[in-house]
Design goal:
Blueprint lengths: L6 H16 L3 H6 L5 E10 L5 E12 L5 E8 L4 H17 L6 E7 L7 H15 L8 E5 L5 H15 L23 H16 L8 E5 L3 H12 L3 E7 L2 E4 L6 H11 L10 E3 L1 H5 L5 E4 L8 H4 L6 E3 L8 H9 L3 E3 L1 H4 L2 H15 L5 H25 L5 H20 L4
Parallel strand pairs: 3-4, 3-5, 6-7, 6-10, 10-11, 11-12
Antiparallel strand pairs: 1-2, 2-4, 7-8, 8-9
Helix pairs in contact: 1-3, 1-15, 3-15, 4-5, 6-7, 6-13, 6-14, 13-14, 14-15
Bound molecules: nicotinamide-adenine-dinucleotide (NAD).
Length: 418
């Protein structure tokens, strides 16, 4: 199912499509299709038994025209230079799409964290943070959590940076725990922006999210919160999945109860109120009103795209459709609302966290959620306005048009140096 599309080539194709709609000069476009720099480093860590192990790690700083580089750090055995470059580029266009003053970055370590103890993960994280120290900072580059990293790793990175710099600088990373300078509402933010995008999208399509049937691939942080908030808005969540498979209930799953079951057993499989269990591909091709991919990139390839029966897709995951799948879905009139808007809640509340860190003044959860709603609803209006005013085939290209225009404007306003 997971077609091996090179994510960096996918990103470049998306930028080319938007550049063509904006009639941008090729030389400007070329600059915006490559990272400004990529750090590739080898981390050697000594284990308790005295043995040494080497890990490859990357940090890509794609573009800083609109502000400090911003983006997560991923721990996964499939992390590669091209994947990190692509993810850092998507961050540039995501931040520009929702109008927050950041550029884009991304990092990762080639590691399967499940194979290491907490102490070992702390050592490897601190080794990476030490390598990153000259490149990161509150006004330079601000890491955040991504796949297989969370508050714990961010707290370690912050502590390493502050210890080495002999200062306090909570805004050097976001996604921290509350007592370490995190923000209320950060954990739920990605699922919340997915729900807000789905709500706005259905309204734009002349339908209501209340009563809509929904399938969600991936029941981690982004997927479960999106499912839960959509259920709270009256949607019927008929199917959800994780890496073990999918569950289905025609009259709707209780998302909280599924979450408790997954917490207890490690998987959604075996949930007692499911009518049946499905393969992941079956979830992706269910006849539902809304499909939310919330697992990993390239989940829907060209072949599967022909089988998709949902009317609309809202992308909680980064890059869940291959470019060819995107073409097929455009031809088949399936409305796809892109990741750089739908999952931008994470980076938006990261921005709120950083603002609170800089001001040393903290907001309550209601304020965070209200400010997030304003950002996402405004960005949705900008998306629709570009979709209606430019000759673009789909909402994804419209999103890149909005974002690219903002990045190019910042670059041109700065002039060229040297
Ligand atoms: P997570 O690790 O919490 O959850 C991922 C879920 O996907 C898990 O339930 C896992 O079992 C499931 N999964 C993995 N492979 C699968 C497969 N083949 N089929 C079905 N399910 C599968 O990760 P997350 O933070 O929820 O991130 C999910 C996606 O959202 C990623 O693409 C990530 O880059 C993106 N995203 C997350 C955030 C955030 O703030 N968490 C922000 C922006 C984008």
């Amino acid at each position: 199912m997971f077609e091996e599309a090179n994510p960096f080539e996918s990103l470049q194709e998306q930028i080319d499509d938007a550049g063509a709609a904006l009639d941008l000069d090729a030389d400007i476009l070329e600059r915006l299709k490559h990272p400004e720099r990529v750090l590739e480093t080898n981390l050697t860590v000594e284990w308790d038994d005295g043995s040494l192990e080497r890990f490859k790690a990357f940090r890509s700083q794609f573009n800083g025209d609109r502000g400090p580089y911003k983006g997560g750090i991923r721990y996964h055995p499939n992390v590669s230079r091209d994947e990190v470059k692509a993810l850092s580029g998507w961050m540039v266009y995501k931040c520009a799409m929702v109008g927050i003053p950041y550029g884009g970055g991304k990092g990762g370590i080639v590691i399967d964290p499940k194979e290491y103890s907490e102490g070992e993960l702390e050592r490897i994280t601190r080794a990476f943070a030490t390598e990153l120290r000259p490149f990161v900072g509150e006004d330079k580059d601000i890491p955040a959590p991504d796949v297989n990293t969370g508050q714990r790793e961010m707290n370690w990175i912050k502590n390493t940076y502050e210890t080495l710099e002999n200062t306090t600088a909570p805004g050097v990373v976001t996604g921290k725990a509350i007592e370490s300078g995190g923000s209320e509402g950060r954990v739920e933010a990605t699922g919340r922006s997915t729900m807000l995008t789905a709500r706005e999208a259905f309204e734009y399509l002349g339908r209501s999210i209340s009563g809509a049937t929904v399938a969600v691939q991936g029941y981690g942080n982004a997927g479960w919160i999106a499912a839960n908030l959509l259920e709270c808005n009256g949607a019927t969540i008929v199917s959800v999945s994780d890496s073990s498979g999918a569950i289905y209930n025609e009259s709707g799953l209780d998302t909280q109860a599924v979450r408790h079951h997954k917490d207890d057993t490690g998987s959604v499989i075996g949930f007692n109120d499911a009518d049946e269990e499905l393969a992941d591909e079956e979830l992706l091709t269910l006849d539902v009103d809304l499909l939310i991919p919330a697992a990993l990139e390239n989940a829907i390839d060209e072949e599967l795209a022909h089988e998709v029966q949902a009317d609309a897709i809202v992308e909680a995951a980064n890059g869940p459709l291959t470019p060819r799948a995107d073409d097929v879905l455009t031809e088949r009139d399936v409305a796809v609302f892109p990741d750089i808007l739908a999952n931008a809640g994470g980076v938006t509340v990261s921005y709120f966290e950083w603002v609170q860190n800089r001001q040393r003044f903290y907001w309550d959860e209601d304020r965070v959620n209200e400010e997030l709603e304003t950002v996402i609803v405004t960005a949705f209006e900008d998306l629709v306005s570009a979709y209606e005013s430019y000759d673009v085939p789909n909402f994804r290209t419209a999103a890149y048009v909005v974002a690219l225009e903002r990045v190019v404007q910042a670059f041109e306003e700065g002039g060229t140096f040297p």
